[in-house]
Amino acid sequence: MTTARIVAALVACAALGAPTLAHAQDTRRGMPPADQPMIREIPRPTAFTVEGGAGIVGFLSGVGGVGPGWNVRVTGMINDRWAVEGNYLGSANTRADTRTQLVMTSLDAGIRYNLAEANRLPLQPFVAGGVGYAGFAGRYGDGFTLVVPVAVGADRMLTENIKVGARFNYRPAFFDHLGAPNIPVGDQPGADTWNLLAQIGGGF
Description:
elongated, 1 helix
């Protein structure tokens, strides 16, 4: 083979391999955007997600200690920025006064706003807010309170259909009384809670 043919072959190989090399270099720079899977970089928009999670729940009033919490959430996307959510949250906390269990069951619905589009960042940050119900079973429990949860968090697609994320919630409560019956209403400990939850679920 003449020198000219060798040079021509090398130039052709370099031209064909350059895009592949550039793509590999781009991939090594960091995680793909939040709407693309980490395992396979294939964009797949999701109309809604169903997620389950667990974490910790605590009371701001000190009525109970920090305890385990569990959560189920359904999210429906309106557009790239806005979504609607439905949440179930449960927890079990030990009361500080009686050392008995106080079990919370809460249901709420709300709106989520994505602070950035999912194709811009490795994680998609968001804020959310809503309104709902919480009931507390156990000694000196309250069967009905009004809650107004607010949250901040971030998530991303792990694969084409699996989403992972975490969020912190503050859940102020109203019409809440978690003290003994002989305690005046104004002195009753409240049911304001906070929780930190990790989530995993499916996007469809």
